[in-house]
């Protein structure tokens, strides 16, 4: 569904994405891995058409149609949802208000408020709490739930497990796996290598803005030298 070819993006004169190419299909989770500062978030932001970084060369196609040059809201209307790093919730809005920003609470089709709350029972208990009253794990759940209310076909997740307790990471992994089984494509940026490998079908490794590794997750799991070389883990 998503095809990125030879993408180059800049912050001013800083060349942060240097010819990256990747693809994401239906029913699969693709993990985008790499150390801090390697361009993973910049690549995600480029897909969503955000003002920075500035894409100067390459292509991003969704179902064969170009995304470059479209505003973020136009990209979202194509059923591409974004879970940003840091969650980016509104501190003054309640859980329910976050979930009904994109769709009425009375909606009966696709992802509904009740379906999100059933997926994340903790949010059901906190439905009247404001964003600034939620724990880190609850904010993470809400950020994913808000994205699902778009009824997406593709979800871009940037560090969704950041700051989560291990039990919440496990729950998030289960949700991601279930979403892929339901037909969604997921591009997952993660620092938590083992969490990413628990759900991913394929893996890309980004280093200084370039894709330096691509393969099935089983391949990189059985190549410890590459894990050490690219990710600094053993």
Care to give the gist of this entry?
By secondary structure, the protein is an alpha/beta fold. The chain contains 10 helices and 10 strands.
Write up what this structure looks like.
This protein is an alpha/beta fold and 234 residues long. The protein has one domain: 3-Layer(aba) Sandwich (Rossmann fold), CATH 3.40.50.300. It contains ten helices and ten strands. It has helices at 40-47, 72-76, 95-99, 113-119, 121-125, 136-148, 166-181, 193-199, 217-221, 224-231, and strands at 2-11, 14-24, 28-33, 54-62, 65-66, 80-83, 154-158, 185-189, 202-207, 210-216. A six-stranded mixed sheet has the order 6-7-8-3-9-10, sandwiched between helices. The chain has a four-stranded antiparallel sheet with strand order 2-1-4-5, with helices on one face. α7 (166-181) packs parallel to α8 (193-199).
What gross morphology would you assign? globular
Q: Fraction of residues in helices?
A: 25-40%
Radius of gyration: 17 Å
- Portion in beta strands: 25-35%
Separate helix tally: 10
Q: Total number of β-strand segments? A: 10
Order of strands in the sheet with most strands = 6-7-8-3-9-10
- Kindly report the CATH topology: Rossmann fold
Question: SSE order in H/E notation?
Answer: EEEHEEHEHHHHEHEHEEHH
Give the integer mean of the pLDDT values.
Answer: 91
Could you state the CATH homologous superfamily?
Answer: P-loop containing nucleotide triphosphate hydrolases
Number of domains: 1
State the end-to-end CA separation. Answer: 33 Å
Derived from helix and strand composition plus strand pairing, the structural class reads: alpha/beta
Uncertain residue ranges: none
| CATH secondary-structure class | Alpha Beta
What is the makeup of the main sheet? 6 strands, mixed
The CATH architecture assignment turns out to be 3-Layer(aba) Sandwich
């Amino acid at each position: 569904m998503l095809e990125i070819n030879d993408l180059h993006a800049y912050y001013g004169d800083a060349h942060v994405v240097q010819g990256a190419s990747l693809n994401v299909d239906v029913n699969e989770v693709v993990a985008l891995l790499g150390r801090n500062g390697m361009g993973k978030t910049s690549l995600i932001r480029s897909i969503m058409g955000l003002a920075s970084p500035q894409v100067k060369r390459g292509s991003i196609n969704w179902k064969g149609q170009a995304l470059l040059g479209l505003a973020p809201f136009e990209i979202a209307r194509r059923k591409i949802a974004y879970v940003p790093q840091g969650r980016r919730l509104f501190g003054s809005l309640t859980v329910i208000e976050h979930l009904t920003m994109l769709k009425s609470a009375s909606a009966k089709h696709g992802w509904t408020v009740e379906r999100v709350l059933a997926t994340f029972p903790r949010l059901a208990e906190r439905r009247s709490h404001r964003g600034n009253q939620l724990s880190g794990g609850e904010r993470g759940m809400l950020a994913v739930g808000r994205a699902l209310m778009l009824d997406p076909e593709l979800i871009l997740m940037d560090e969704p497990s950041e700051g989560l307790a291990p039990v919440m990471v496990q729950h998030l992994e289960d949700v991601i796996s279930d979403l892929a089984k339901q037909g969604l494509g997921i591009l997952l940026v993660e620092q938590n290598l083992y969490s990413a490998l628990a759900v991913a079908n394929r893996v890309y490794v980004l280093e200084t803005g370039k894709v330096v590794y691509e393969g099935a997750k089983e391949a990189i799991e059985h190549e410890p030298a590459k894990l050490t070389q690219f990710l600094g883990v053993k």
